User: Fold this.
Amino acid sequence: MITIASWPKRFTEPRFADIQTKAIKSWQMLSPDVEIILVGKDEGVAEVCAQMGLKHLPNVRANERGTIYLDDLLYQISLHARHNIVAYVNADIIVLPALARAVSEVSKKWKRFLLVSAPHIADFTAIQVEPGFEKNALKHIVQQPTPYGADIFVHTKGLYKKVKPFLVGRQIWDSWMMAYPAGKGIPCIDATEYAITLHPIDETSTHAYVHLQEGKKREESWRKANDPLKVQEYEYNESMVTSWWFMHLHRTKLPYEIKPDGNISERNLSDKDIDIIRKIRSEDRKSFIKSLLKRVGLYNKVYDLYRIIKRNY
Assistant:
């Protein structure tokens, strides 16, 4: 079926414990064969893994503040996952059973893929995760998803080969997660309107900035909150991106979507949106050629020749 990995906050804080426990229970209900991996060393994580029968990976690389790096996260998931289809899910996200159906249909259609979903905002206090809970859960949605990032990334194992060391949970990393496979021509599917997922209203949850739709607003809010470390992490992630295009591929610009009725269809993207994907693919090819030339020791010679031609013609 699927391996789900997540990086939770400390379970010793009652607010986080309640939200994250509900989320994990919803993941367990996707399939009897679902595998769940929690990463990190936050308080209570090891104990929850033991109690709920989950796999624990405590030694994923992190910075001095404890924020984990995306490259090692994806490497560890790929290394330890039992299933060929893996997912990174933010720890405060309740998933509904339609996600399992979406993954099943997409995996029949493509051997390699990325499937994403952005969460609807819901009142978690009114939701009890138990068999048949989804009908009641849908009644407590209070806000529709934004068109920008995503909180669920389902993909075939080994899809991400060369991963930059983004800090997970900070600006840009989720856009890069979508841009990387799109740049390689791998099918990318937005399942938001079919595989509905839920994020809590409570702004003290693991992603308090979900309601902010632009990165600069996030940065401003952190500055106002006098949180210079988080601003530094934001700026660090921004420095990882060498191409403007990688920052502007939002989930609503992905080539495919799953309609509310479950049908997978190709989107009618605008010329501008198609151009963004083309430019990402172009940047990806340039990066590959550059790395290949460096590997065989020809990069400097080719670059010098390019400068001579450009100067004289």
Summary: Residues 204-216 have pLDDT under 50 and may be disordered. The chain has two domains: 3-266, 271-312. The longest strand covers residues 35-39. The radius of gyration is 20 Å.
